[in-house]
Amino acid sequence: MERKGVELSTLRKGLEILSLFSEETPLLDTSSIAERMGLSKSTVYKYVQTLEGSGFLVREKSGRFFKLGPRLLELASVAQNPSRLVDVSYPILQELVDRTNETAHLVAIMGTHAVCLAGFESNHSLKLSYKPGAMYPLYAGASAQVLLAGLDDAAQKRVLASVTLNRFTEKTITSLKELFNRLQQIRRDGFAVSRGELDEGTFSVAAPILSSAGDVLGGISVGGPLHRLDAGRETKYIQLVRGGARKIAKLLE
Question: Which structural domain range is residue 70 located in?
Answer without folding.
Answer: 15-76
